[in-house]
Design brief:
alpha/beta; Rossmann fold; 36% helix; twelve-stranded mixed beta sheet; six-stranded parallel beta sheet; Alpha-Beta Plaits; single chain; Dihydrodipicolinate Reductase, domain 2
């Protein structure tokens, strides 16, 4: 099987190295000889993490997708413009395509999968979600007897590293972000990671595989971690929780909800103990119950492992042309974000005066919101206090309405913080 690679950076170089290192084992499992014959790169003279011996390099990517000798194209350049054009041409030329491009699949996956089906080729993308963790294959194959009720995961290593450092070393967000950039965990422009866009792309794909719905990135409610403070971390710890940046997808009463946001989860929960740059995905099925998938969510050889696993599926002809379950799928209804029910954490900076806490709880009670836990600490000489509250389960629109009224009171000194709480 001849393979052409679009992009020979971190992941592409990892694929070359893993194929070379495990060539005999892969041949034993597949009975096939895999060889990378061509690669499209930006600069043919650039130093790389892999050997390019025996690989024809070109700076023109369409030479790869139009090459009649190539059977499988690995799209590893990223983006949603040129990458989309290249994938379309490759598929129309009858080539199988494997990609690690979560943005491409989340935004254009439905049409590209339909195109692949029409051309009797495969479009596979295990590496697009959670790096080397085989979560998509687990959802599609290993859990196929289950009706999936929920998928919840830590699916961005950068955000997880930042929150872990803030918790364990009592550091502020900005200083940890700078360290993450220095270590190469965060880009110079970290927006996609810290504001949840990267995780939202991945959650879109997870939800589509889990529930058999269309890929609909626009339906993901997304909130980043840049507003999580050291005070929030400390209060969460005192209340028995850890703050994680979760992607959560649920299907209840025929309605699908997809959301990415900071989340308080009990410290005893397995997800609360997934630290650093590691990823983990919790899946709840109606037959098996809850299962957890943990591993490296990024990195050259970890992601290459998932890419090559897709190549093996093509060789063995075990990949489905109906990966989203469209044959039985009619339509999906996405839940209005205001109707989503959750426990909530509130943190308020308020004047420490008599009746302030009573006034706050009265306003909450007017919206049928009860206080399950509260912690109050004086923070400055102006007699201001931080108040942290854990509520009962309530609709998002009700907590937002109550907080809007509380925010207008003259005893509130700064913007009220609202964070979801999940017991999972």
């Amino acid at each position: 099987m001849n393979i052409g690679i679009l992009g020979l950076g971190t992941v592409g170089g990892g694929v070359v190295n893993v194929l070379k290192k495990n060539r005999e084992e892969i041949a034993r499992r597949t009975g096939a000889k895999l060889q990378i014959t061509h690669a499209a790169v930006r600069n043919v003279n650039q130093r790389r993490i892999c050997s390019t011996e025996g690989i024809t390099l070109t700076q023109e990517p369409f030479e790869v997708v139009n090459n009649d000798t190539i059977d499988v194209v690995l799209e590893l350049i990223g983006g949603t413009t040129l990458a989309k054009d290249l994938v379309e041409v490759a598929i129309k030329n009858g080539k199988h395509v494997i990609t690690a491009n979560k943005a491409l699949i989340a935004t254009h996956g439905s049409e590209l999968l339909a195109l692949a089906k029409d051309n009797n080729t495969q479009l596979l993308f295990e590496a697009a979600v959670a790096g080397g963790i085989p979560i998509l294959k687990s959802l599609e194959q290993g859990l196929s007897a289950n009706r999936i009720e929920m998928v919840a995961g830590i699916i961005n290593g950068t955000g997880n590293f930042i929150l872990t450092e803030m918790r364990d070393k009592a550091r502020d967000f900005d200083s940890v972000l700078k360290e993450a950039q220095k270590l190469g965990y965060a880009e110079s422009d970290p927006t996609f990671d810290i504001e949840g866009i990267d995780a939202a792309h991945k959650l879109t794909i997870l939800a589509a595989i889990a529930f058999g719905c269309e890929l609909n990135f626009s339906q993901v409610s997304t909130q980043g971690i840049s507003q999580v403070s050291s005070e929030d971390i400390a209060f969460a710890t005192e209340l028995g929780y850890s703050i994680k940046h979760l992607g959560i997808a649920k299907k209840e009463d025929g309605e699908i909800q997809m959301r990415v946001h900071p989340t308080l989860i009990p410290k005893r929960h397995l997800l609360a103990n997934v630290d650093g740059v590691m990823n983990a995905v919790l899946v709840k099925g109606n037959a098996l119950g809850s299962t957890l998938y943990y591993g490296a969510g990024a990195g050259d050889e970890a992601t290459a492992s998932a890419v090559i696993a897709d190549v093996v599926d093509i060789i063995k002809d075990t990949a489905s042309h109906d990966v989203l379950g469209w044959q039985s799928f009619e339509s999906s209804t996405f839940k209005n974000q205001d109707d989503i029910e959750s426990i909530f954490y509130l943190r308020l900076l308020a004047s420490d005066k008599p009746s302030v806490l009573a006034d706050i709880t009265t306003i909450l009670a007017n919206y049928n919101i009860s206080v399950e836990a509260v912690v109050q600490k004086q923070v400055d000489e102006q007699n201001n206090a931080h108040i942290a509250i854990i509520t009962n389960v309530i609709k998002t629109r009700d907590i937002n309405a109550a907080v809007e009224i509380i925010q207008s009171k003259d005893f509130i000194q700064e913007q009220i913080k609202i964070i979801h709480v999940e017991t999972l």
